[in-house]
Amino acid sequence: MEFDVFTQVIVTGLLVGGVYGLISMGLSIIYGVLRVINFAQGDFMMLGMYAAFFIFSIFHFDPIISVILVFALFMVVGASVYRIIMHQVIFQKNKTSQLLMTFGLSFVIQNLALVFFGPTFKNIVTPYRRSSFNLGPININQAQAIGFLIAVILVILFWLFFSRSNIGIAIRAVVDDKDVAVTLGINVNRIYMIAFGIGISLAAASGATLIMYYPVFPTVGRIFQIIMFLAVMLGGLGSILGSFFGGLVVGLVQFISSVFLPSYLEFLPVYLFFFFALVLRPEGLFG
Amino acid sequence: MVKVKLFTSKVFNKYELILIAVLFCIPFIFANEFFLSMLVFAFIWAIAAGGPNLFSCTGNISLGHAAYFGIGAWVSLVLYINYNISPWLGMIVGGIAATVFAAIFGYPTLKLNPVALTFATLTFPLILTSIAQFLNYIEVPIPFIGDSLQNFQFTSKVPYYFISLIFMIIYVLFMKRLSTSRIGLFLKAIKENEEGAKAAGVNVLMYKWIALVISAFITGVAGAIYLQFLALFTPEIFFGFNTVATMTLISVVGGLSTPWGSVVGSLILTPLGHSVEFLTGEVVHGAHLVLYGLILMVVVVLIPEGLVARVQTVYKNKQRLRSA
Question: How confident is the model at residue A283 (pLDDT cuts 50, 70, 90)?
Answer without folding.
Answer: low
